[in-house]
Amino acid sequence: xxxRSNRRRxxxxxxxxxxxxxxxxxxxxxxxxxxALSYAVYAAVVSNAEGSGYSGLGDAPSSPGxxxxxxxxxxxAVPSKxxxxxxxxxxxxxxxxxxxxxAKELDQLTTDAGGIRTTMSSYFMTWGQxxxxxxxxxxxxxxxxxxxxxxxxxGGKQNPKxxxxxxxxxxxxxxxxxxxxxxxxxxxxTETAKAIADAKWPVVLRFAHEMNGIWYPWDEGVNGxxxxxxxxxxxxxxxxxxxxxxxxxxxxxxxxxIRPEPNIKLKPLYPGDDYVDWVGMTGxxxxxxxxxxxxxxxxxxxxxxxxxxxxxxxTGAQIDSKQLSWVNNFFPxxxxxxxxIGFVWMEKDRDTGARANWRFTSSPQEKQAFQAGxxxxxxxxxxxxxxxxxxxxxxxSTGAPxxxxxSTTGASSxxxxSTxxxTP
Length: 424
Known about the structure:
Blueprint: H1 3-10, H2 19-45, H3 66-70, H4 82-85, E1 91-95, H5 103-112, E2 120-126, H6 134-141, E3 145-151, H7 167-170, H8 177-181, H9 186-199, E4 203-207, H10 229-243, E5 249-253, E6 278-282, H11 291-302, E7 310-315, H12 323-335, E8 340-346, H13 364-374
Parallel strand pairs: 1-2, 1-8, 2-3, 3-4, 4-5, 5-6, 6-7, 7-8
Helix pairs in contact: 9-10, 12-13
C-alpha cells in the first residue's frame, strides 16, 4: 500500500468507518433524548410546586416549557387551600366538554365571554375511573381552579326526555350507600385520596352531589338506601381522605335546588361544618324570570343549617320565553348576595352530556346579555385575599384583558362526560 493511500485512510472520519459505529452512536443519542423526554412528560403530568407555573386565576398561562423544566426552572410555590376558601372576588367557572384539558376550548370560551377568562374548570369522574393528576396541572396551567365532581356510581345514560328518570341510572346495587359504609370501596377511595394528596395543589371536590334528589343511586330515596346513610358515607369518605393526607381538598356539599323535590329536607343530609368547606347548589332557570325565584327558597333553607360560603356549582338558563330575563337578572342578583362566592355555568347541551342546552351562546341575545353581566363582576384572582370580608361582587371589573392567549398545550382524559344539568 502506498504512503499516499495510508494518509487518505488516516484522514477518514470515524463516522465513515462503518454502520456499526454509527448505529451505536445513534442509539446512545436516542437514549439521552428518550430520558429527557420521559422526564419532561413526568414533570408535565405530576402536579407539584416545580411544574405548574401558577400565577393566579383568570390569567394567561405562565407555565415553563419543557426545556425550562429540564433546566430546573419551576413555577411559584404551591398555593394553600386557605388561599381559595374566602376569595376577595367572585369565582366564574364553566363546565365544558373537554375541561380541564383543552386549551383551545378555553380560548373559544374566553372569546365567547367577551375576553374574560374563567377562574374555575369543572369536570366529572365516576367511581369506575382512575384519578388523573394531569387534570390538576392542566387546570392551573390554564389559570383555573380545578373543580372535580366525584360520583359514586358506574355512570348513567342520557335520559330520552329531560324530565324522565331512567331506572338503570338509579338502580345500581353495587353502589348502595350501605356497601360504601361496609368498606367495599375503601381501597379505591384511599388510592384516589393519595393521588390527590401527592398532587399537592388545592382541588375543589364536589362529592355525591344532588343528594336531595331521586335520580342518582346515592340518593337516600332510591337504590335500597336508608335515611341517615348519606351523612355517614360523606364522613367515611372524608375521614379516609384525611388519613391519606389529602388536606389540599376543598370539600363542597352540593344539593340540588329544592324545586323538584320540595319535601326532601336538607338538614338531615348535611354532614356538619367540620366536614364541609363550601355549600354548593345545582340550579337552572326553567320557566322562571329571575334567579331569585330559582335559588331563593334553597338559600333560605341552607342558611338555617350553616353559614358556610355558598357557590353555585351548576347553572344556566333553559331556552324558553323567560331565558333572556333570567340571564339579565343573574349578575345583578349575584352582586346582591355576598354569601355566594361564585358560579359554574354549564356550557353543554343534550348532545354533549347535559339534559338541555344550557350554553350562554344558545342565542346572540343571550350571549350579549352574558357578556355584559359578566363584565360587571369583580372576579377573584386566586391570590391571597387583600380585602378581608369584602363583598365578592362589590367592585366592577372586566376580568382578564381581551385577547389573552391561552396555553397551546391540551390533553384529553378519555373520560366519558357525565350527564350534567340534572335539575328536572
